[in-house]
Amino acid sequence: xxLLPQLLIAGVVIGSVYALAALGFVLIYKSSRxxxxxxxxxxxxxxxxxFALTQKGVNFWLAGLIAMLATFLLGMLIERVxxxxxxxxxxxxxIMVTIGLSSVIDGLIHLTPYGAGTFxxxxxxxxxxxxxxxxxxxxxxxxxxxxLMALGLLGGxxxxxxxxxxxxxxxxxxxxxxxxxxxxxSVERVFALAWAAAGLTAAAAGVILGLMxxxxxxxxxxxxxxxxxxxxxxxxxxxxxxxxxxxxxxxLENLSAGYLDGIVPGGGTREVFPFIILIIVLLIRPxxxxxxxxxERV
Amino acid sequence: MPASRFTQTGxxxxxxxxxxxxxxxxxxxxxxxxxxGLLLLxxxxxxxxxxxxxxxxxxxxxxxxxxxxxxxxxGLINIGQAAxxxxxxxxxxxxxxxxxxxxxxxxxxGGIAGALVGTFVGLPSLRLKYLYLAVATLAxxxxxxxxxxxxxxxxxxxxxxxxxxxxxxxxxxxxxxxxVWYYLILPVLVVMGLLWRNVLRTKHGRSLIAVRDNDRAAxxxxxxxxxxxxxxxxxxxxxxxxxxxxxxxxQKAVVIEDYGLHISIQLLAMAIVGGLGSLPGSFLGxxxxxxxDRLVGNGSQWLGAQNLFPAGVDVATALRxxxxxxxIVLFLMFEPRGLANWWRLSRLYFKKWPxxx
Amino acid sequence: MTLSTPQPANAPPPQxxxxxxxxxxxxxxxxxxxxxxVLRGVxxxxxxxxxxxxxxxxxAGKTTTLRAISGxxxxxxxxxxxxxxxxxxxxxxxxxxxxVVKSGVVQVPEGRRVFKHLSVEENxxxxxxxxRGNWHADLERIxxxxxxxxxxxxxxxxxxxxxxxxxxxxxxxxxxxxxVLLLDEPSLGLAPLLVAEIFDNxxxxxREEGLSVLVVEQxxxxxxxxxxxxxxxxxxxxxxxxxxAQLASNPDVKEFYLGVTEGGARKSFKDVKxxxxxxRWM
Amino acid sequence: xxxxxxxxxxxxxxxxxxxxxxxxxxLTVPPGEIxxxxxxxxAGKTSLLNCISGFYHPTRGRITFGHHDLSRAAPNVVTGYGIAxxxxxxxxxxxxxxxxxxxxARHTHLRYGLLSSLAFYGRASRQEAENRAYVERVIDFMELxxxxxxxVGTLAYGIQKRVEVARALxxxxxLLLLDEPMAGMNVExxxxxxxxxxxIQREQGITVVLIEHDMGVVMDISDRVYVLDFGQLIAxxxxxxxSADPRVIEAYTGVAEEKQAVGx
Amino acid sequence: AQKTVTLxxxxxxxxxxxxxxxxxxAGVEDYCKYANAQKMLPGVTLxxxxxxxxxxxxxxxxxxxxxxxxxxxxxxxxxATGGALQLxxxxxxxxxxxxxxxxxxxxxDAPDNTYTFLPVSSYSENIVALLEYIAKxxxxxxxxxxxxxxxxxxxxxxxxxxxxxxxxxxxxxVQEVGGNNLDNTALLKRLESQGAKYIINQNTAGPVANxxxxxxxxxxxxxxxxxxxxxxxxxxxxxxAGDAAKDFIWATSYYLYDEGNQPGIQLVxxxxxxxxxxxxxxxxxxxxxxxLAAAIAIEAMKRAGNNPDAAGVYKGLISMNGxxxxxxxxxxxxxxxxxxxxxxxxxxRLLQADATGNFKPITGAQRSxxxxxxxxxx
Lengths: 298, 357, 282, 264, 378
Ligand SMILES: Nc1ncnc2c1ncn2[C@@H]1O[C@H](COP(=O)(O)OP(=O)(O)OP(=O)(O)O)[C@@H](O)[C@H]1O
Ligand SMILES: Nc1ncnc2c1ncn2[C@@H]1O[C@H](COP(=O)(O)OP(=O)(O)OP(=O)(O)O)[C@@H](O)[C@H]1O
Ligand SMILES: CC(C)C[C@H](N)C(=O)O
Ligand SMILES: [Mg+2]
Ligand SMILES: [Mg+2]
What we know:
heteropentamer; B: mainly alpha; ABC transporter involved in vitamin B12 uptake, BtuC; two-stranded antiparallel sheet; C: alpha/beta; six-stranded mixed beta sheet; four-stranded antiparallel beta sheet; 10 strands; disordered N terminus; disordered C terminus; binds adenosine-5'-triphosphate; binds leucine; binds magnesium ion; branched-chain amino acid transmembrane transporter activity (chain B); transmembrane (chain B); Branched-chain amino acid ABC transporter permease (chain B); ABC_transp_permease (chain B); membrane (chain B)
């Protein structure tokens, strides 16, 4: 039976979408220690902007780019208007602001014709037609594009955070804002940049997700929730963690759907299995697989 | 010199025991009694549907006190309070339908079930902090919903109907249901509030706050942070369980949708808008959120009728989450201490009345 | 230019007009949260190429003074209500933190505040964010001052010792090519040997790079020994100033900051209970 | 003081990821004395204190306090044995007032259950009142009256340090561990703190373990001094003996103490 | 004098499933207004109230209490499965005839089922009909069920198993798939390895579309026949799944928008145009469904004569049988109720999607005889 390799590959494919969505979380968390519950909504915004443009006859790729630019600005705007005031507030307050924002964006999307209903992209020529087959598992071009895009973006950001001065500074800001300011860092600019970058990746994730499984507000925004086990498993502040966490969750979901569902009456174990694994992993490594351990010295 | 406690405006206490009293002055004590008296009369003047909202507000207030115990006072972010409510609701439903217990036993059983499960779910808090713990509670919420869906005993999330109750010979029917339950819920809320107020004055309450502020220092004070956290989860989910039991009866049946993630989020919003770690806030938060939702619901129905928006856009759909979200965001940005702070300020004002300062 | 006796603060500054490269703080008042007034008219000058020390009791406002200079009051909810700070012809008090650093004034914050989760080298690189000069060359420059740091390169800064953290913090500030370095209690919690080492290094950098330094210290002893000029601050005011050597011989400074009796012997802490003398300037 | 409150550290080694923070450290703290631990930064002083107070557990070796074994005990358990501690970097409840901070230190002295506190009747109510009185006495002693009800976070650093000590004292310990209580203070403020420490030891008979970098203070008030360097105990004994030890001078002070203090 | 009677509906105009709910609400509201305009009820003006409950049971209850307690509504039009199940005891107590958009058989099962009615055949019957179709095509075929993880989805499983037994079919697996499922490779691969040839869905269109798209990519569409109950198919599915919807077999009791020659659909078009609904709404089968529910309620009121109270409406409803059955033309058969029969239009058709995603009937209107056997009504 070649079920296992097929499940693993399928897990990697869906996992790369998770990873891409998770990347946005990590970007924000890494520099500002804010966890963004509105990320799913930003993903949805990006996807719908791209969709609306294609509806108006704009070329798919151009529409995707414009959407990324738009969510780039949206991220910046959110940081500027809402999050900047929250610097220094307790973590629960900041979390709640983003929960509130998720609701606000939901509402705003409902003011457009895309709030209710389901839509799907007109697939661009490049992504139509036969994909490839791995271990007897056919993969569509969209899926391959998703994996490549995820790996590319994730690799780029890993390099950025570890090797570039700006990347290092962004991590420094997360560590100690006051100290970062003392050497001339504009903390505000760093935050704005982080949010903007997160917005950009969100649109990318949204478009890929839209291509793969259609556009509904609930489905796109729902990925915001799905991504939690991913980032927590990988470690909230680790780009590598986002990749590995995403792939792992994707694979775990598939393995449980592939094997566990046959045993558990009613099945649907993929909905909970990752969460159970998550709790077990956390009990062993409380800061995730790749997360930075909080340095606590008394 | 008790008489002067009616009118004093400063701190003239002479014994430390007085420092522990809940009410600074008799005037305050008196005004609370008057308030409760008024509350007892409320159902006589309120329209029926509003009475239903008030009942709901009160039940949520019980759950929000519980949430405040874990999240507000102890700082353990809990995104699964609705699931704890659910545990209480299902336990109550089973006690009432399988064991045929009367409501005054079935509801406490819900509380105890909540506390037991809460204690268990709280165990990871021994190792996890902040967001990692928050996500563990989120995981519990999801596992709970899934688990109920796979348990035939719990009707797989479908309805388990509860029998109507009978108090002092009065049977709760469709037409007096809200009325009867008002007088059942109100005392529960008042007692639950008072109990917590008491705990706050003692070492147990303080130890929770200590763990929130600095768990290492708490340990150095001889407080076992683990025990304190588990205790917070236990008490917090006991409150949730009681609220769930009440909700089960109040809704006449238990269905899984009443205890979903969105309710957990709503409870958090109530706690925040009310003011985290504040008892009055635990009442004001639910009051505000439920009222806001009603107002927006009605307002947007009117707006929708004005045909200002293009077809395919439903104004209510948009305005409800929009206003809910905005309320949370604005509160956090401009009044992070929540409604409780307004309450405190207005109390200060009245205490000094008629003097301005 | 030298003083024979320490001057009361209100007298006009004894030094002649500010020369090029001086940092001057002129009659600055600072409030926190719009209500808590901490600085009540502080004036001081950091001469180009000199080390200037600022002494004072806890809560006197020393840190606040540094924050006012470096533009870091805002995050603490503080504000300059009155007065000006200028350097090199620029009015620093009108700039934000980033622009103050750009104009060449860099603060090493109190309590070291290294980036705990970053490696030692990354800490230093974070100091190069404004991108003046080549960070590679700068790293080497810092490593020559603090030869211990290159051996710790890849160690997480949170796990280095107090003295090492102080070196990292100073090194990090030097990466920004400052003309004036503001040091806030560099000796805090450091063992005597390290304190000496840090001050030696500061002195060396001051000499070799012509860097001006303003150092806030509780350890008056070492601060006065390693500085050219000194100020004493109490309750938000400068209460005394003078050449460091002269300050060190002032009886009040001797008793309250250096812990020596008027006779010149070191007081024993064992006998502290006996009496308390009032400070003369109060 | 009974023999039961003697602190014994026997051959303690503490390892962090392969690096020894402490290597085979043994020392004794006799009841009623002021014992200082000095040494360069990173020598392992705080780590040793952490081992005693239960925040770290020694990789090897044993720590006993009277007949209690502290080697594996949790911090709150150690506190229950009568060992209190003030931290190097303030570990206060910043949002709470001075009184509230100190009330928390009475936790182990209050003996009533959760049910009693739910009702706030009987035991709970009575003990809370007594307790408040106790806290006030400590506030008097440490001269904190005027700060009593201020949130600790807004107090000046020196005062916060004093609150740390006061809070530890409120635990009514037999042994008090102080980690650099005078860091960041000028001479005058140090004098005040020394006065409190001496009173604590002399009037209340509490044993004190002090970590401090100010050699003047250490030499003046200690009955016994231990010196750590790179996790190893390099000297121990009467202050004047230790300060003259060439190894101590080389590793720590750099110069003989008297010269350093006055030589301007 | 004109009497005002409230015709209330509570459902998910917003929140989960609101894509269906919004169109459904429009159908109820428009038909109600149309009835007023046509003066269908002599002497009575309908107060058409459609209220959003956000798919939240507490809101549904509140709305119900308001409708019945304050507005004296003689009938209740509901929506969600959960809300309807929760309301059963109250409905029994208040004797308010109730019709919901959920065709969950549990709603009309005992106990507390005197006043609950389904407008059309139940999900269970949809699925039994699909099983019968399979049995006719292939003896002993292997069938898998994919259902929504909710009471709505799980409901028909028991009946499906019983029916399969009788039909000699083998149910190889029952799986739950919700709306957040982005990838069904594992599921489909496993079903394939079990040899399942027919996959029956009880779900909403979203998850089904995802399954179909994955199946298409995996090259399974030729090997597996996908089918589904009422809420899986129609325009929604076509829109979401695109060409992957091809060949999908759908069981429903309603006529479709394309069948313009049907009087019911003509009415839908006319009313939709009159009240200026968007094309998407009018095309949606949920718009038609909403109209049917409203039409049944209004017809029952009409039969109650000049006193359309709850008892009257109930009598009106259970009088709809034999020659007095009601046939507004929205569904493929007449609506019949009696004291024992609480299912309105029992007839249903199977339809199959063509290459452009348009559903075309592959059977005539039929009733599932077997369903009576596997789920006898009490
Ligand atoms: N962010 C702030 N908000 C309110 N008050 C503040 C703030 N920062 C400092 N203060 C107050 O300002 C006064 C001076 O503080 P500052 O830190 O400047 O003193 P310092 O001289 O540096 O003392 P230390 O030697 O303890 O570092 C203190 O009373 C302090 O409480
Ligand atoms: N939790 C920890 N994890 C890893 N290493 C640690 C930890 N705590 C302490 N160390 C290391 O142990 C060594 C001793 O540190 P410790 O804090 O005990 O020194 P110290 O003597 O108190 O120094 P100082 O005078 O600066 O306070 C240091 O190298 C430190 O980095
Ligand atoms: C009404 C429909 C959209 C089906 C819905 N999911 C239910 O609860 O039954
Ligand atoms: Mg300072
Ligand atoms: Mg230390």
